Amino acid sequence: MRLLPLLLLIVLLGGCVSVPQNVAPVDGFELNRYLGKWYEIARLDHSFERGLANITAEYSLREDGGVKVINKGFSAADNKWKEAEGKAYFVRDPQEGYLKVSFFGPFYGAYIVFELDKEDYQYAFITSYDKSYLWLLARTPAVSDEVLNRFMQKSNELGFATDKLIFPKQD
C-alpha cells in the first residue's frame, strides 16, 4: 500500500516530460548550434513570465553534460531584471529536440523543439508537456513575417491557442 503513493508521484512527474498529441520533436538536432542567446518573440501566457519584456533564454554546456539555462526578462512594474537559472538534459536521443528542464529541484518539465531553422538555427518553435505552453524563439529580437506566419500556421494546425499569443516587447 505504501508503494501506491510513490507510483502515483512517478506517473505524475513523468507526465510533465511527455510529448503532446500530434507534436513531434525535431530530428537532427545539434546542441552545439543551439547553444547561445535566444530572444522570445511570442508565447502563451504563464505566471512566471507575466509582465516581463526583453525576455531572453541563454543556453550553455554544464560540466555534467547537461545544459545550463538562464531565462531573463525585465519587469517594468518592479523596474528590475528577473532571472531564473535551470538545467536541462536530453530525454532520449541527443539528436532529438526533446529535453527535460528544471528550475525547481527534482521537478522537470518537457522542452520540445518541434520546428527549427536547421540551416542557420535562427528560429525555433518550442512547447512543453501540454499545449498550454508555446514559444517562438529567435536569435534576433524580431523575425520576418514569413517566420511569424509559419509559426502561427503550424501552431494553429497542431491545436495551440494562437489567438491567445503574447508578443513581448523587445528593445
Task: Note the main attributes of this structure.
single chain, alpha+beta, 18% helix, 8 strands, 3 helices, globular, disordered N terminus, 171 residues, eight-stranded antiparallel barrel
Structural class, from helix and strand content? alpha+beta
- Overall shape: it is globular
What is the helix tally? 3
Instruction: Enumerate the strands of the largest sheet in spatial order, edge to edge or round the barrel.
Output: 1-2-3-4-5-6-7-8
Helical fraction equals 10-25%
Question: Can you summarize the main beta sheet?
Answer: 8 strands, antiparallel, barrel
Q: What separation lies between the terminal Cα atoms?
A: 56 Å
How much β-strand is present in the residues?
Answer: 35-45%
Q: Would you identify the regions where 5 or more consecutive residues have pLDDT less than 50?
A: 1-15
Q: What is the tally of beta strands?
A: 8
Helix-strand string: HHEEEEEEEEH
Rounded radius of gyration (Å):
16 Å
| Averaged pLDDT | 91
List the helices and strands and how they pair.
Layout: H1 3-15, H2 31-34, E1 36-43, E2 52-61, E3 67-75, E4 80-90, E5 98-104, E6 107-116, E7 123-127, E8 134-138, H3 145-157
Antiparallel strand pairs: 1-2, 1-8, 2-3, 3-4, 4-5, 5-6, 6-7, 7-8
Structure summarized in a few sentences:
By secondary structure, the protein is α+β, with helices and mostly antiparallel strands.
Please tell me about this protein's structure.
There is one protein chain. The chain is α+β, with helices and mostly antiparallel strands and 171 residues long. The protein contains three helices and eight strands; from the N terminus they run H-H-E-E-E-E-E-E-E-E-H. It has helices spanning 3-15, 31-34, 145-157; strands at 36-43, 52-61, 67-75, 80-90, 98-104, 107-116, 123-127, 134-138. An eight-stranded antiparallel barrel has the order 1-2-3-4-5-6-7-8. Strand 5 and strand 6 form a beta hairpin.
